[in-house]
Amino acid sequence: MDHLQAHEYLISKPETTVSQPFGEGVDVYKVKGKMFATLALGKMGKGAEENPHWWMNLKCAPDEAHILRDIFDAVIPGYHMNKRLWNTIILDGSIPQGEIERMIDNSFMLVVEKMPKKAQTSILLKL
Fold it and tell me: Any stretches that span the bilayer, and where are they (predicted)?
């Protein structure tokens, strides 16, 4: 999955908006005003200047966050985020698209589940 595919999948979620509150180059995806993902060109790592990868931050349950980090080299603790609740997914082609979509779905639902029931219902009816 590349950054364009990731953007399309993220923005396809019901009631999702995208903005850049952290500055140009960092897209923030929110559902009803609550952040569930960010997408930006990575700026860290050896060789990043020659072959930069896009990085996506996604919310995750703490236990699953650690499991995903153990399974995939391209999943690291959330960059500039709460490392317990967020993972950074490096879009380098090493993670299957279906798994990235599952992680996005999971992040979206973790945020929706914390909303009042009325807001949850309006979103869930559109899934």
Answer: none
